[in-house]
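Retro notes - structure team

What went well: the batch runner handled both jobs without manual restarts.
What didn't: labels got mixed up in the shared folder, which is why I'm recording both outputs here explicitly, each with its sequence directly above its C-alpha cells.

Job 1
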Amino acid sequence: MSTEFIVKLAGQAVYTVLKASAPMMLVALVIGLVISVFQATTQIQEQTLAFVPKILAVLLSLLIFGPWILATIVDFTYNLLSNLYQYGG
C-alpha cells in the first residue's frame, strides 16, 4: 500500500463520516440557535433549556435520517470490501 492510497482512503472515510453526521449536526445547530434567541429575549439562563430540546431533536433526526445514514455507511463499506484485492500488495 502506498501512502497516496492511504491518504485517499482516509479522506474518503472522513468525508463519509461528515456526510453521515451532517443531518444531526445541522438540526442541533438550528435548534441551539432558536433556543439561544429565546433565552436572550426572555433572559432565562437555564442550561437544561438548551440541552434537552437539542438531544430530543438529534434523536428525532437520527430516526428520520437513519436509513439514509445506514445506506451511506454500507455503500462506503461495500466499495471498500469489494475492491479489497486492489488494496493489498
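Job 2
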Amino acid sequence: MWIQFLLIVAVVLLAAFMMRRTGADSHLAIRRILLGLFVFAAVLSILFPQWLTWVASLIGVGRGTDLLLYALVIMFLAFVYTQYRRNLALQREITLLARKTALLEATGREERTAEDDEGTTRSR
C-alpha cells in the first residue's frame, strides 16, 4: 500500500514539474493533455496492476510489462526526436547570433579605424 502511495506521489510531482511553462512553447496545450493522460494511466496502473495486463491482452501483447516496455520505447524515441529538433533550432539561433556579433564587431572596427585615420590626418 505504501509503495503505491509513493509511486502516485512521484508521478504527480513529476507531472507538475514537467507541466511548468518553459518559455515560448507552441505545443504547450498538447503536451499538457498528453501528460495528463499519462498521469491518469500511470495512477491506474499503480492502483490496479491487473488493468495493464487486461489492456495488453486486448491489444494482443502477452503481458502488461511488455506493453509498458513498448510504450516506454515509443516515448523515448519521441523524446529523442523532440530534443533533436530543439537542438537544431538552438544551433541555428547560435549561428545567427554569432554572425550578427561578427558583423557588429567588424562595423565597430571599421568606424574606429576611420575615426583614427581622420584624427591622424587632422593632426598633420
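One thing worth noting from job 2: The chain has a mean pLDDT of 81.
We'll revisit the folder naming next retro.
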